[in-house]
Amino acid sequence: MSAAPERKRLLLTGPASERAAKRWMDAVYTAPGWTPLHLPLVRIVGRAIDPRHVRDAPSLVAVTSQNALPALKRLWDQREDVKDAPHAAVGVATARALRAMGIEPALVGEPGDEGAVQLAKAIAERTQDEETILWPRGDRATELRERLVAAGRQVDAPVAYRTEDVEDSVLPGRLAAAFFASPSAVGVWLRTADAPRVMAIAIGQTTHAELAPEYARFTRIVRLAQATPGALADALSEL
């Protein structure tokens, strides 16, 4: 009786949290012949938002990552006008987390690193010139603010969390592919000594753009059709 073929190993370099990564790992298991490993190449460090730096009565609160929710929840406790404002979310997971905290999102944008573009357009359509949008964000995120300001909105964008590179990671052996959920993770991979030459899978356009100039470092570069665990499973099934 012949032995079953060895499953190909996919390294998930993100999402950073185990809870968020579980959905992606479960999806990989549904792809025939693949098994996931989780080794985040970035870590998330929360920061408190000083309520004195947030203008009164924002017209809308934009939530583009679940990583911002702990700081936002503390801000709600100090500022009822923030909690009472309409909230918008990027991705069904963030929307679900808001609902679990008692907030029904007024808008839900598509997930992934293009989600801010779509959310900015939807917010601009819903709000008026000079209205204030509150965006609790990561320290490396800038695009939503830039787009909303260009659309004539005022934006408060306090940092709710920092993204730190994990520079001392030891990559496992026998990898067939690596999944990148952010440009930051790509940067850490490229700086990691003895990173293997494997297939790279990008969550979206921005991450793919970070990978593309380094195509010689990988056997192949693939971009997901959508920034969802299901799209990752579909891509793996077709490879």
Q: In which order are the strands of the major sheet placed?
A: 2-1-11-12-13
Helix run count: 9
Secondary-structure element string: EHEEEHHEHEHEEHEEEHEHEH
When the domains are counted, the total is 2
Unreliable runs = none
Mean pLDDT value = 92
Helix content: 25-40%
In short:
The chain is an alpha/beta fold. The protein is built from nine helices and 13 strands.
Give a structural overview.
The protein has 239 residues and is of the alpha/beta class. It folds into two domains: 8-41 and 166-238, 3-Layer(aba) Sandwich (Rossmann fold); 46-163, Rossmann fold (3-Layer(aba) Sandwich), CATH 3.40.50. It is 34% helix and 22% strand. The protein contains nine helices and 13 strands. The chain has helices at 18-29, 69-78, 80-84, 92-100, 115-126, 143-150, 183-191, 205-211, 229-238, and strands at residues 8-12, 34-38, 42-46, 60-63, 87-90, 107-109, 132-134, 137-138, 154-156, 159-165, 177-180, 199-202, 220-223. It has a five-stranded parallel beta sheet. Helix 8 (205-211) links the parallel strand 12 and strand 13. Helix 1 (18-29) packs parallel to helix 9 (229-238). It is elongated, with a radius of gyration of 19 Å. It starts with 7 loop residues before the first strand and ends with a helix.
